[in-house]
Design goal:
This protein is α/β, with parallel strands linked by helices and 337 residues long. It is 57% helix and 9% strand. It has helices spanning 5-36, 38-59, 65-86, 115-128, 131-137, 161-177, 196-209, 219-231, 241-247, 263-278, 291-309, 320-328; strands at residues 108-109, 112-113, 186-190, 214-218, 250-256, 283-287, 311-315. 25% of the residues are buried.
């Protein structure tokens, strides 16, 4: 999930093109305005002449020149707006118009990445990870609960697999719908192939469509990313960890427990989850591990953070992927988890 130098350069070229387009469109607007309002060109000429004249006076030590220049320019700019308005043009017609007014299409506000650049980075990473194609297939509109049995009862909860999935689906929808209003985290755990990853894709698609920054890692990818950032050579991994992992709007960790567990992965997971809780940045985790497994593998500290800060959803049932393949042999092509 690292952003390479070439990827960064690619994004910056996009901003450069955007700035050139802004200037080109401004020149076109000037030509249009001059054609419709001949006096406007004369007025701009006067503004230029005044600026040069008073600039010379300032260089010669005339301290009052600046005040006089401001007064005259204020009058002339007001006159320009009046002429534009009289011709049916907006007052800012002859100003640069930006795709992102916050950073003025530079990608940065001061030394900080603008929200538009942050989103562009996430979108680029998604596109190059091929997840966008997956999200087109796996989302709330394609989710189907018909494959979940009402007769398969979970001995731990006493609920059927269909009831459990209906509850999980409702909670995940509510999570996406109220994302900007409520801080919430979700842990999806249970049997293999029952739709946990599908649900994380549903959430990701919903929030990306609302322009939230969503970072999606398998557990193996996440800890590999941490390892490269910690131990790798400079440039081997994106050093902007604090945005990509700790500060994105939503972090999704899929298949927790498939990584090689050791003291490094345990400590990094704790820091990651704890940081995001402190920053009130939601996280969604899916795993085939039981709660007891999570407690024993990742320590009581991590289990405590999860149990006290996460909505925990248990999913059970038969492997939906196997059922789908069997049904497809009979000609069924429905999209299901």
């Amino acid at each position: 999930m690292a952003l390479s130098n070439s990827q960064y350069d690619q994004l910056m070229r996009t901003y450069e093109v955007r700035q050139l387009d802004n200037e080109h469109r401004l020149r076109d607007r000037y030509e249009t305005a001059y054609a419709r309002i001949p006096k406007l060109k004369e007025l701009d000429g006067t503004i230029s002449s005044l600026s040069v004249s008073y600039g010379r006076l300032l260089l010669e030590g005339d301290d009052s020149a600046l005040v006089q220049l401001k007064e005259q320019l204020s009058f002339l700019f007001t006159r320009k707006k009046e002429l534009l308005k009289s011709a049916g043009l907006p007052a800012d017609y002859l100003e640069l118009h930006y795709t992102c007014p916050d950073c003025r299409d530079t990608g940065y506000i001061g030394t900080d990445k603008c929200h538009c650049l942050q989103k562009a980075i996430v979108d680029l990473l998604y596109m190059q990870s091929n997840l966008q194609d997956i999200l087109a297939q796996e989302n709330f509109s394609t989710f189907c609960t018909d494959y979940y049995s009402s007769n398969c009862i979970d001995p731990l909860t006493g609920r059927s697999s269909q009831e459990s999935m209906q509850t999980a689906l409702r909670v995940c929808r509510q999570f996406a719908d109220s994302f900007s209003e409520e801080f919430c985290n979700i842990l999806l755990y249970g049997d293999t192939g029952v739709g946990k990853t599908f649900l994380t894709h549903c959430i990701a698609k919903e929030l990306m469509d609302k322009s939230y920054s969503v970072i999606y890692f398998s557990a193996v990818q996440l800890f590999d990313y941490f390892a490269k950032s910690t131990f790798g050579k400079k440039g081997e991994a994106d050093t902007d960890v604090f945005y990509h992992v700790y500060d994105c709007d939503l972090l999704i960790i899929d298949d927790l427990g498939t990584e090689l567990s050791n003291s490094f992965t345990v400590s990094q997971l704790f820091v990651c989850l704890n940081e995001r809780i402190l920053r009130r940045k939601p996280t969604v985790i899916s795993t085939n591990l039981t709660l007891d497994d999570i407690n024993s593998i990742y320590s009581e500290r991590i289990f405590s953070r999860i149990s006290s800060n996460y909505m925990i959803l248990r999913l059970t049932g038969d492997d939906i992927r196997i059922q789908k393949k069997l049904l497809n042999l009979g000609g069924t092509n429905d999209v299901t988890p």
